[in-house]
Amino acid sequence: MAWQDKIAIQLYSVRKEMERDLEGTLKKISELGVRYVQLDGMRGNDPERVASALRKYNLKVIGMHIKHERFSNDLDGIIREAYLFDCKTIYDKYIEEEDQHTAGYVKTKQTLIDAALKLAPLGFRIGLHNPEYDFTTLVEGRMLMDYITDPVSGISIYAEPDTYWISASNVDPVEYVKRYSGRAPIIHMKDFLPGFEITDMAHNLTEIGSGTVDFKAIIEWGNEHGVEYYCIEQDQSKLDMFDSLAQSLTALKAYF
Prior knowledge:
Blueprint: E1 7-10, H1 15-20, H2 22-31, E2 36-39, H3 47-56, E3 60-66, H4 70-73, H5 75-84, E4 89-92, H6 102-119, E5 125-129, E6 138-139, E7 142-143, H7 144-149, E8 158-160, H8 163-168, H9 173-176, E9 186-189, E10 191-192, H10 201-204, E11 205-206, H11 215-222, E12 229-232, H12 241-253
Parallel strand pairs: 1-2, 1-12, 2-3, 3-4, 4-5, 5-8, 9-12
Antiparallel strand pairs: 6-7, 10-11
Organism: Listeria kieliensis
GO molecular function: isomerase activity
Keywords: Isomerase
């Protein structure tokens, strides 16, 4: 299996670069050798221009992060963007602070289920990105991500596990992802250095291969259980971001 068929880059990593120079940024991403990216907003660019630049540099969108409130108030807009970028795998990127309570989580689940009921017949997959509060929050006796992704009337919300946040919460990411066999088409690959506060991302987030996450085991499991893409995301780095991504990519490629 060629690594080019399985590794993607989350463009949130280069959000600042996209704001300054869209085409130059996507050109550099393409020059890393990757074929697949995940979108996280337009970063001040016209969506048509973003779609055109992605085509120019032969980058295919395999997932889209969508702002939380849009699932409630802009489903038609989400559909238009999905067709523009030829991508029907869409994730609620982050449950906003005002909804980070039991009633908000219950509402979020119903909103995502409603969206899935409407969009699944069109071939869409609706999911939730896994942040840190998953592991400190119980809803109806279930850990938050488990609660959100539990099926309702045959409809299940997909999970997007994030190895950094899982690790930062003192949970083993290799064991955690196993609960999502067939239900996690994309995993966010981010390394973690223990010994710092959970909020100290400047120190505990590191390039792949420099921390403690067992990416080899995750990939071995994922290849047998429906993971389609392993998506590198680097929220921040002490390195130049393209150097950071190149370092993580080199480490990850060794497992294919």
